[in-house]
């Protein structure tokens, strides 16, 4: 008897790219058939705008009668204003020599004579640049926002670090607060706190408080469990363990929370000038509105210098050991420096000497005009190529496609990349944008975001790969990235406006240079984090550097690269909207118009909400992509 083998017919194997390709073809066919049908053109008199404007009028008319405002909101506004006025009075009472001396003394105590010298030269530069008064107002507003942020954020962070239930409850709230572009905080503050320093400080507090909570919670979580157990075994109460074990051991990381809160506050107080908050933002807004770089540059440089001085001082304090004292020489030098500044306050004139002020506005404007004439062929060609080849086609695609087709595409993309729940969230956000009456402007904003993200990721990958493969190049690039990440977002508008004028491309260019540094860092860290054994195995198998990168390092660093894409999208959205100040238009223009014209408040408020919804939608599309199996994992399964 002979056995015959029964062969099973081979199953048809569908390539992985077939389903996505079929989906793209289906959507392209749907666009060609229904192009121009089911679009939602912009209407300045849309019902949501009118309703929101009427709500604003009702709130204004009833502020003096509503118990909520009389006994709650107004007292918060008065309290914030009182804190700001106190800081402003103290800083101005020190005088310019006293404030410079005290800053230098604090820097010397925190990090030695180099940090002290940086503080002296940095704060003296505010007067040399001719923006001393504006800088003091900005410093007072930052101090107000940081103090109140830490008074709220540190206890919440400690609570979240000790309670997983609290951490789980507040994490989604913090996620949404960090996704929101800075513009979105302004409209509610105007509604409740009117315009001025209290509204600006309140917006800054909301923007700056998430890192204070997150980093504090992380610091408490990272305290050694053995130290906590030892404290408990000795009979210490929960409060004694917190005060004598957890907080001292978490001190350095919590100082980093203070540092990040200061940096976030500095970034926001400039934008808060749109709601009449005092400080350096007024000069930048004035320069942007007049397209005058000479007005903006001194204020922009002062913000950068302030950020660097405060960053270096707080980081030096964070690096000090817990029980490290101050040697007598350092204490004496700091005391002499502070005393000298305070004594000079009573000797020198109260105003910064006019003879020491550099008048750089004229030369800067002349240099900008020279650059515009000299580089015009290159900058204009770059602008026109990007506009014609990328911006206009994508803008036309999104604004002429049926709204339901765009919604279906977003649902499919989010489902494929992140799963069912994020896909439904993304779809809900997009439908809410349509209900707000801002579909067309949202699609225009989305166009700029997509183009800016594509350029940002391309540059971030190239620079991150170069840094990961060369220690020398990484050492040169690292301080540039450090400086770029300490600059407030408004500062990036200066070179963009000088090179390209007020256009959509200007907003995209500014958003790219703003978002590239964190993308580069994440890509570099991801590639450097690849296991050395995997790299050695690939090299021993004869892989070339290109094969090693494509087949080993990039796939294994996939999680970090996808996180870089997510961060690039969120930061680009925030900056593209800010680019309304330099001709970006779309939702950003609606927000600015809502602040500047009372009759457009409803449109501006709705645009702020639409920006938040777009941010959440894009975040949900990308946040779950790192959980999808990689090609290598699919092969193993």
Task: Describe the protein's architecture and organization.
It contains 27 helices and no strands. Helix 16 (403-418) packs antiparallel against helix 17 and helix 18 runs antiparallel to helix 19 (471-486). The protein has helices at residues 18-34, 47-62, 67-111, 113-128, 132-162, 164-179, 186-193, 197-221, 225-233, 238-249, 251-271, 281-290, 293-319, 328-347, 361-400, 403-418, 420-435, 439-469, 471-486, 493-500, 504-528, 532-540, 545-556, 558-578, 586-596, 601-623, 631-636.
Explain the layout of strands and helices.
Layout: H1 18-34, H2 47-62, H3 67-111, H4 113-128, H5 132-162, H6 164-179, H7 186-193, H8 197-221, H9 225-233, H10 238-249, H11 251-271, H12 281-290, H13 293-319, H14 328-347, H15 361-400, H16 403-418, H17 420-435, H18 439-469, H19 471-486, H20 493-500, H21 504-528, H22 532-540, H23 545-556, H24 558-578, H25 586-596, H26 601-623, H27 631-636
Sum up the structure in keywords:
mainly alpha, 80% helix
Query: How does the helix and strand content classify structurally?
Result: mainly alpha
- How much strand content do the residues show? under 5%
Morphology: globular
Please state the CA-atom Rg, rounded to the nearest Å: 27 Å
Identify low-pLDDT runs: 630-637
- Note the run of SSEs as H and E: HHHHHHHHHHHHHHHHHHHHHHHHHHH
How many helices does DSSP assign?
Answer: 27
Tell me the distance between the termini.
39 Å
| Estimated helix fraction | over 70%
Calculate the mean pLDDT score and round it. 80
**Biggest sheet statistics:** none
Strands, count: 0
């Amino acid at each position: 008897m002979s056995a015959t083998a029964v062969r099973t017919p081979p199953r048809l194997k569908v390539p992985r790219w077939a389903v996505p390709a079929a989906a793209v073809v289906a959507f392209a066919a749907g666009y060609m058939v229904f192009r121009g049908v089911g679009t939602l053109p912009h209407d300045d008199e849309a019902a949501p705008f009118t309703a929101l404007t009427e709500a604003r009028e009702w709130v204004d008319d009833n502020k003096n009668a509503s118990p909520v405002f009389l006994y709650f909101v107004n007292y918060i506004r008065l309290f914030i204003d009182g804190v700001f006025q106190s800081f402003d009075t103290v800083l101005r009472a020190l005088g310019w020599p006293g404030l410079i001396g005290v800053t230098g003394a604090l820097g010397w105590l925190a990090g030695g004579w180099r940090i002290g010298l940086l503080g002296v030269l940095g704060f003296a530069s505010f007067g040399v640049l001719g923006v001393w008064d504006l800088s003091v107002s900005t410093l007072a507003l930052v101090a107000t926002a940081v103090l109140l942020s830490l008074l709220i954020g540190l206890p919440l962070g400690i609570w979240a670090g000790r309670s997983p239930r609290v951490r789980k409850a507040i994490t989604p709230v913090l996620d949404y607060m960090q996704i929101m572009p800075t513009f979105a905080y302004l409209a509610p503050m105007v509604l409740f706190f009117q315009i001025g320093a209290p509204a600006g400080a309140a917006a800054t507090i909301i923007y700056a408080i998430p890192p204070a909570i997150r980093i504090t919670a992380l610091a408490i979580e990272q305290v050694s469990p053995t130290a906590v157990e030892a404290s408990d075994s000795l009979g210490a109460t929960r409060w004694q363990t917190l005060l004598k074990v957890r907080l001292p051991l978490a001190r350095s990381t919590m100082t980093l929370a203070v540092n990040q809160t200061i940096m976030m506050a500095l970034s926001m107080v400039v934008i808060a000038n749109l709601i009449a908050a005092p400080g350096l933002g007024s000069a930048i807004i004035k320069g942007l509105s007049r397209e005058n770089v000479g007005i903006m540059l001194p204020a922009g440089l002062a913000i950068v210098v302030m950020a660097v001085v405060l960053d270096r001082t707080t980081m030096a304090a964070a690096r000090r050991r817990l029980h490290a004292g101050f040697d007598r020489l350092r204490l004496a030098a700091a005391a002499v420096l502070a005393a000298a500044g305070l004594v000079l306050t009573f000797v020198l004139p109260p105003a910064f000497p006019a003879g020491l002020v550099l008048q750089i506005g004229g030369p800067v404007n002349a240099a900008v005009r020279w650059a515009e004439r000299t580089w015009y062929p290159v900058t204009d060609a770059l602008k026109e190529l990007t506009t014609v080849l990328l911006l206009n086609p994508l803008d036309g695609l999104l604004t002429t496609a049926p709204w339901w087709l765009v919604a279906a595409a977003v649902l499919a993309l989010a489902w494929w990349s992140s799963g069912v729940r994020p896909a439904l969230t993304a779809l809900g956000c997009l439908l809410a944008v349509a209900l707000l009456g801002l579909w067309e402007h949202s699609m225009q904003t989305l166009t700029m975001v997509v183009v800016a993200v594509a350029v940002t990721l391309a540059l971030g990958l190239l620079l991150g790969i170069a840094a990961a493969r060369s220690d020398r190049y990484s050492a040169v690039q690292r301080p540039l990235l450090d400086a770029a990440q300490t600059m407030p977002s408004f500062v990036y508008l200066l070179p963009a406006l000088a090179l390209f004028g007020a256009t959509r491309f200007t907003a995209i260019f500014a958003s790219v240079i703003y978002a590239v540094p964190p993308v580069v860092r994440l890509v570099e860290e991801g590639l450097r984090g690849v296991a050395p054994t995997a790299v050695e195995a690939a090299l021993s198998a004869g892989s070339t550097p290109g094969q090693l990168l494509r087949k080993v390092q990039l796939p294994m660093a996939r999680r970090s690269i996808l996180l870089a894409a997510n961060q690039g999208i969120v930061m680009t959205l925030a900056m593209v909207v800010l680019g309304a100040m330099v001709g970006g238009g779309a939702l950003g223009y609606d927000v600015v118009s809502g602040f500047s014209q009372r009759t457009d408040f409803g449109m501006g408020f709705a645009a702020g909400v639409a920006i938040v919804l777009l941010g959440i939608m894009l975040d949900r599309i990308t946040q779950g992509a790192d959980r999808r199996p990689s090609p290598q994992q699919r092969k193993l399964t």
